[in-house]
Amino acid sequence: MDKRLLDYEVGEGLDLFLLIKSSTRGIASNGKPFLSLVLQDKSGELEAKLWDISDSDEENYASQNIVNIVGEVQNYRGRKQLKIRQIRQSSGIDGVSIGQFMETAPIDKTEMSEEVTKYIFEMQNANLQRITRSLLKKYQDDFF
After folding, report:
1. Inter-axis angle of helices 109-121 and 126-143, to 10 degrees?
2. How far does the chain reach from its first CA to its final CA, in angstroms?
3. Are 72 and 13 in contact (CB under 8 A)?
4. How far is Cα 71 from Cα 73, in angstroms, rounded to an integer?
5. 3-state class of 29 per DSSP?
6. Whole-structure pTM value
């Protein structure tokens, strides 16, 4: 089984594809710009700093981008943080998609749909049942 982001302990090195959940520009005490990144996979998220950035780095490493990170998990003020050694944007040949990094429900869509449908048909009020079925049919993609 492949290790996920939060499976790594302090001091362990990693080489993972991760989703940039958020990216915030800051200025270090030495006057140089940096990015504070929140990186995530299905296991959760960790913060990382990207130091000495260029103007293009802010665009390349914006939120909702997938990146390959080589680095190490460190302890910073009592919390885990990623130290980035190398970072690069993913490309089509990497075979990764944003869905692989998003947290998902504990049951699959089909099972969830069957459960919701069961509850709708158990409704005693016929008008409420019809309205609920209609709304679910109209918005099912967004709902599930």
Report:
1. 170
2. 28
3. yes
4. 7
5. coil
6. 0.70
3-state percent helix, strand, coil for the chain, nearest multiple of 5? 30, 35, 30
**How many angstroms separate the CA atoms of 81 and 73, rounded?**
6
Mapped onto helix, strand or coil, the DSSP state of residue 101 is: coil
Residue 139 in tokens: 């918005």
| Residue-wise pLDDT tens digits, 50-83 | 998 988 898 889 999 999 999 999 999 989 999 9
41: closest CA among 63, 22, 19? 19
Half-sphere exposure of 42 (CA within 13 A, CB side): 10
Q: Distance (Å, rounded) from C-alpha 87 to C-alpha 70? A: 6
For the segment 3-19, what is each residue's pLDDT rounded down to a tens digit? 889 899 999 999 999 99
Predicted confidence band of residue 33 (pLDDT cuts 50, 70, 90) = very high
Structure tokens at 126: 């016929």
Spatial distance between the Cα atoms of 74 and 22, rounded to a whole number of angstroms = 20
For residue 37, give both structure tokens: 């990144």
